[in-house]
Design brief:
The structure holds two protein chains of two kinds. Chain A is mainly β. Chain A is 0% helix and 54% strand. Chain B starts with a strand and ends with a strand. Chain B is 0% helix and 51% strand.
């Protein structure tokens, strides 16, 4: 298993501002991902956070809107930039320890007014 | 990756009744994983199926992988209120691309 700490757990933000979400893992992992889960919906992969290089973004997600850092094998941040109400969602950090088996953080519930 | 479709989207059962959710793909799946997400919680890994026709059990939960590896099912026998949540299947695709199904939300009442 993996212990994953995400901060903040929830936040209410004003339109046009940016928020950075932190993800800390209790041990080194190669594969780390960021997901978005809109209310009542499934999980959508935003990007794979690569250590020491630029993140790999999925279709529909761009670096300018969701910049990601991965300075080492235990930590990553996701920034939601220039927020709008459509960005209100739960953002989840996850890691892959065993092939196919994802462990998730508790999630960061973001509300944009 | 292509999203796998789950049916039903929602099911409401009385405690003690059985429940089944199905996961269907138009393409052959390499592996399939099942996750449970309680209301307000995060997804928690339940099981991975790898082999064609594989059946695995966890207490009241039975997981099955189709012979053609294009579908899978999760069956819960005699549901309890603790089974409430959304069940997702997930297609590994490649080692790093994980595509979650649309999910089935289960409500259990006494």
């Amino acid at each position: 298993s993996a212990v994953i700490s995400q901060k903040p757990s929830r936040d209410i933000c004003q339109r046009g501002t940016s928020l950075t979400i932190q993800c800390q893992v209790d041990s080194q992992v190669t594969m780390m991902f960021w997901y978005r889960q809109q209310p009542g919906q499934s999980l959508t992969l935003i990007a794979t956070a690569n250590q020491g290089s630029e993140a790999t973004y999925e279709s529909g997600f761009v670096i300018d809107k969701f910049p990601i850092s991965r300075p080492n094998l235990t930590f990553s941040t996701l920034t939601v930039s220039n927020m709008s109400p459509e960005d209100s969602s739960i953002y989840l950090c996850s890691v892959l320890r065993v092939p196919g088996e994802l462990f998730f953080g508790e999630g960061s519930r973001l509300t944009v007014l | 990756g292509q999203q796998v479709m789950q049916i039903p989207q929602y099911q409401h059962v009385q405690e003690g009744e059985d429940f089944t959710t199905y996961c269907n793909s138009s393409t052959t799946l390499s592996n399939i994983q099942w996750y449970k997400q309680r209301p307000g919680g995060h997804p928690v890994f339940l099981i991975q199926l790898v082999k064609s026709g594989e059946v695995k059990k966890q207490k009241r939960l039975t997981f099955q992988f189709g012979e053609a590896k294009k579908n899978s099912s999760l069956h819960i026998t005699a549901t309890q209120t603790t089974d409430v949540g959304t069940y997702f299947c997930d297609d590994t695709g490649t080692a790093s691309k994980l595509t979650f199904g649309t999910g089935t939300r289960l409500q259990v009442t006494l």
